[in-house]
Design a protein that fits this description.
By secondary structure, the chain is α+β, with helices and mostly antiparallel strands. The protein is built from six helices and eleven strands.
């Protein structure tokens, strides 16, 4: 895949994965000509056999609170799944933590590709992608082995695995009225599969089991990226 096709694929993936319906890539704009002053910018670097920088400038970030389920939700947390979808367009690697701001002025870099994302009536934001290395297809077996070795350095990094049986929303009044013995109804029917989350991201479905007097979860289905909630 050429760099141009990879840029376009990354932008399309981002637009399709953002937690706002009806978004679409309307076309490329000149890098450097897009003034992102006054916008909310979220960015991340991708390191792999093909490395890149991603940056998303949002005209408005009002959707973040609703998408995150709380008024204190952060754009970096809400947009993480969309950036992970972008990373899927590249051949293996590690997506860094999302950060606020435009790293090294990606939007002003003439080597970056910038795409406008629209909600059908007005610009929703602009997405910039800057590839910093040659295409993975040009790498030889030695390069692939080297990358696998680098990836192995993080194999022992621990991540939080959580099993969620359901959720509910309640007013502050109801929360303050809770007391021992009160039953809270969740948004999950009895016998329905539970959600398995890795670092807060839903990755699988399962069923609760008992293992030597302790609770456990039997994985029944691994979710594709497209199936995970945004």
């Amino acid at each position: 895949m050429s760099n141009l096709a990879l840029h376009a694929s990354a932008a399309e993936r981002l637009a399709a994965s953002l937690p706002v319906p009806g978004l679409a890539v309307t076309g490329a704009v000149d890098a450097g000509a897009r003034d992102v002053a006054g916008t909310t910018v979220v960015s991340a670097s991708f390191v792999g056999s093909l490395s890149a920088d991603f940056a998303l400038a949002l005209v408005s970030a009002e959707f973040v609170a609703e998408a995150g389920g709380r008024t204190t939700a952060r754009p970096t947390d809400v947009l993480r799944p969309a950036f992970e979808s972008v990373a899927e367009a590249f051949d293996g690697g590690v997506l860094a933590e999302l950060a606020d701001g435009d790293p090294a002025a990606v939007f002003a870099d003439p080597d970056a590709a910038v795409y406008e994302i629209s909600d059908g009536g007005a610009p929703f934001g602009w997405f910039a992608v800057r590839i910093s290395e040659g295409l993975a297809g040009a790498a030889d077996a030695g390069d692939a082995a080297s990358f696998a070795g680098r990836l192995g350095r993080i194999h022992d990094v621990e991540m939080a695995l959580t099993v969620e049986i359901g959720r509910t929303r309640m007013s502050v009044r109801d929360a303050l009225a809770m007391e021992p013995g009160k039953v809270i109804e969740l948004d999950r029917s009895a016998g329905a599969p539970v959600d398995v989350l890795l670092n807060g991201r839903k990755i699988a479905l399962g069923e609760v089991v008992v293992v030597d007097q302790d609770y456990g979860v039997r994985i029944t289905r691994i979710l594709d990226v497209a199936e995970a909630p945004r």
